[in-house]
Design goal:
Elements: H1 10-24, H2 32-62, H3 75-106, E1 109-111, H4 119-133, E2 139-142, E3 157-163, E4 171-176, E5 184-187, E6 194-198, H5 199-206, E7 215-226, H6 240-251, E8 256-262, H7 266-276, E9 283-285, H8 296-299, H9 324-330, E10 333-337, H10 343-354, E11 358-365, H11 373-383, E12 387-392, H12 400-413, E13 416-418, E14 425-426, E15 429-437, E16 440-448, E17 460-467, H13 470-484, E18 496-498, H14 502-518, E19 523-529, H15 535-547, E20 550-555, E21 571-576, E22 581-582, E23 585-591, E24 594-600, H16 606-610, E25 612-618, H17 622-637, E26 642-645, E27 651-653, H18 670-687
Parallel strand pairs: 1-6, 8-9, 11-12, 12-13, 14-25, 17-22, 19-20, 20-21
Antiparallel strand pairs: 2-4, 3-4, 3-7, 5-6, 7-8, 10-17, 11-15, 15-16, 16-17, 18-25, 19-23, 21-26, 23-24, 24-25, 26-27
Helix pairs in contact: 1-2, 1-3, 2-3, 10-11, 11-12, 14-15, 17-18
């Protein structure tokens, strides 16, 4: 924490979020295989962190060791602190892995190493190596005076020292384990339960078959994380798709940001470090299997439901036999994912694709799934002769390759594809369908806080709004005209768009509440987001706090704001980490009896407010406003999975059954409350009297 600038360090705040995720793997209430998922998420998150954020910090170090804004720690100090906190985190992560592994072994899921293989298992892995691995594993020699062989990014490799008589002593090879091979190899076992080994242990056991005449005298496993924060010059590139494809290739060869090694052969580690030209402080000895992200496959193993969370089924908010157009046209509708199913979005697009009355579809796609029903419906709509325009964001980091593929698929089907907006990422989630009806042309809209991805819709907490309000949907049409053509977009009555005026709107809202609070009006802000890192917004929140505005923030990840100081005494910050990823962005501004409720695709970060195309949209239908406000209150009262941010930057887990001031209250776990609510609604629907179907018959006298 700086005495000069009242902000927490962004990079350290991010690691603290990851440590909160890791802490869930310590909780007794979390089943063992679910704990494995948290370990895998931590590894996955750190991969991206080193590829993007650490790469950015290293550039700042080389660029003069200064930040563009005033913070307490310089980039070089930040980098050292990041490395130290990362080491502490992965040491704790692997301690937990050992504990969970022991617990799983007691329940019948055993990880074996080669020394534990019985004869049948040894024969099994030998045959597996000879039939499936021998022909796909390629030993590559490493020579100190020659360029290091291609290793790509985030690939699992094994390095070996060979001996076989002079002058062969000291020869070194590497073997890449192809990513398409299953990391876990399930072994035959006559004991109850199941046994597995890591594939690298099997490779190491039989690697001498790849180098006949040599013996193995040393081994380490290693994994390189490279700089992925490589921009594309959109002004110079005529073929943007080709330019993005080159960026993906360049990532495979960019400078290493991290070298993870497992094994204690110092000669190999030193030679790898020198050959890769990587700083010693970026070499991390890992006390267990590299890349625990691959443990997702273990966490989802079938047949062990008692070691997993109980199934929470989502509720379908619209019956299959109900007309979806009438459902939306009658009143605004709200989807609360994943407690309610994403099915209405898929159904809306699927029916629109074949509906002869649908004339046009416009949509933004940022991240979608590998076999997306959304994309298939859009492609079918184009083949049916409808006008389909899709903005596919090729700069969606780590989804670029998939988005390029989907964009080509859509174009081949007849869709008009827009490859993003120059200089900006389109992060807004918007769908517009134009339909001819008996009373004229009508627009149907869906706006969301999360991606159009049916898989993450089962795992991420998000809101989505359906509406057919003519004035509201007209502004969505204006939005699409602005991002796909040359339209100059003016200030709209409902929608607020970044980078056009979203930040200024937020600052205006905060300033308005500040002024009213100074005049004695009771004012309150309740906001939920993924990250809070925009310094202008933070300063405005400090100012509002000093004026007496009560500010309650639910920030899942990065939070640079410092609560509980003289300048922020009225600001209270919590973070919730639970089985679903908290992803919704909700902003409620209250002055006296007046409340405005907004949903948004944007976090309060500089990149969202000034470097992305985002949308913030108001909720107008009173029942939906009340439903969202109720959800926000439940989140803020969570005392099972919530942690409170102190002025020292420490996240303190709330004590179940106690408020922050120590008074008694019932235990409240927000996600469980939402699950119980939809279960109650489902039971009510099942118990409701069934509507009789009346068959139409031909009149007797006709």
């Amino acid at each position: 924490m700086s005495d000069v600038a009242p902000y927490f360090n962004r990079e350290l705040s991010w690691i603290e979020f990851n440590r909160r995720v890791l802490d869930e793997a310590r909780q007794e209430s979390v089943p063992p295989l679910e704990k494995i998922k948290y370990l895998a998420i931590v590894s996955s998150n750190f991969d991206e962190f080193f590829m993007v954020r650490v790469a950015s910090v290293r550039r700042a170090v080389k660029g003069g060791d200064r930040w563009p804004t005033q913070l307490a720690e310089t980039p070089s100090q930040t980098l050292k602190m990041v490395h130290n906190l990362y080491r502490k985190t992965y040491e704790e992560q692997y301690q937990l892995w050992d504990e969970i592994r022991s617990h799983l072994a007691e329940r019948g899921i055993r990880r074996l190493v080669p020394s534990e293989f019985h004869p049948e298992q040894l024969n099994f892995v030998r045959e597996r190596f000879q039939k499936e691995l021998f022909d796909v594993l390629s030993p590559v020699k490493i020579e100190d005076n020659r360029p290091f062989p291609f290793t790509g990014n985030l690939r699992l490799n094994l390095a070996f020292l060979l001996s076989g008589g002079n002058p062969e002593v000291g020869k070194m090879i590497m073997v890449e384990v192809p990513a398409y091979l299953d990391r876990l190899v399930w072994l035959p076992d006559d004991r109850p339960g199941a046994s597995f080994a890591f594939i690298e242990d099997i490779v190491g056991l039989f690697v001498e078959q790849l180098v006949p005449g040599y013996q193995i005298r040393g081994r380490v496993e290693f994994r390189i994380t490279r700089d992925a924060d490589i921009p594309v010059d959109e002004e110079k590139e005529e073929d943007f798709v080709e330019a993005m494809a080159r960026i993906l290739q360049n990532r495979m060869h960019s400078h290493p940001m991290r070298l993870e090694v497992r094994g204690n052969n110092e000669e190999l580690i030193n030679r790898l470090t020198a050959a890769l030209d990587i700083d010693a402080d970026a070499v991390f000895p890992i006390p267990g299997p590299l890349n625990l992200k691959d443990l997702f496959s273990l966490a989802t193993v079938s047949g062990y439901d008692e070691l997993k969370f109980p199934v929470w089924e989502s509720r379908r908010p619209i019956p299959d036999d109900e007309d979806i157009w009438e459902w939306i046209r009658t009143e605004d509708r709200l989807l609360f994912l994943p407690y309610e199913s994403f099915t209405p979005v898929i159904r809306l697009l699927s029916e629109a694709a074949v509906d002869p009355d649908v004339l046009a579809i416009r949509m933004t796609l940022y991240r979608t799934s590998g076999d997306s029903p959304i994309v298939h419906a859009l492609a079918q709509a184009a083949r049916e002769g409808k006008q389909v325009m899709v903005l596919v964001e090729l700069k969606a980091r780590f989804d670029e390759e998939q988005n390029i593929s989907w964009a080509r698929t859509l174009e081949q089907s007849g869709c008009t594809v827009i490859y993003g907006v120059e200089g900006l990422k389109v992060h807004a989630k918007a769908l517009l369908i134009v339909r001819r009806e008996s009373d004229g042309i009508r627009r149907y809209v869906h706006l969301g806080t999360g991606n159009y991805n049916e898989k993450t819709a089962k795992l991420y907490g998000d809101f989505g709004l359906f509406t057919a309000r003519s004035d509201y949907t007209f502004e969505v049409a204006q939005f699409f005209n602005a991002i796909t053509g040359y339209s100059s977009i003016g200030r709209m009555h409902y929608l607020v768009m970044a980078p056009h005026n979203l930040k200024s709107k937020l600052l205006s809202q905060l300033e308005g509440l500040t002024q009213q609070a100074r005049q004695g009006v009771s004012c309150r802000i309740r906001a939920k987001m993924n990250s809070l890192a925009d310094e202008d917004i933070i300063q405005a929140l400090y100012k509002a706090s000093q004026a007496g505005v009560k500010i309650l923030l639910n920030v899942r990840g990065i939070c640079m704001l410092v609560p509980g100081k003289d300048f922020s005494a009225n600001i209270h910050v919590i973070s919730i980490v639970d089985r679903y990823l908290e992803h919704a962005r909700v902003f409620i501004f209250q002055a006296g009896e007046t409340e405005e409720v907004f949903l948004s695709s944007a976090d309060w970060m500089f990149r969202n407010l000034e470097r992305r195309v985002e949308l913030m949209f108001p909720i107008l239908f009173p029942p939906l406003k009340e439903r969202i406000k109720s959800a926000v209150e439940v989140w803020l009262k969570d005392n099972v999975k919530a942690r409170v941010l102190t002025s020292e930057g420490i996240w303190v887990r709330r004590q179940p059954g106690l408020t922050d001031d120590g008074t008694l209250q019932d235990e409240l776990r927000a996600q469980e409350v939402f699950h119980r609510q939809v279960e109650q609604e489902r039971r009510m629907e099942r118990s409701a009297p069934k509507r009789d179907l009346v068959a139409r018959r031909k009149p007797k006298n006709s």
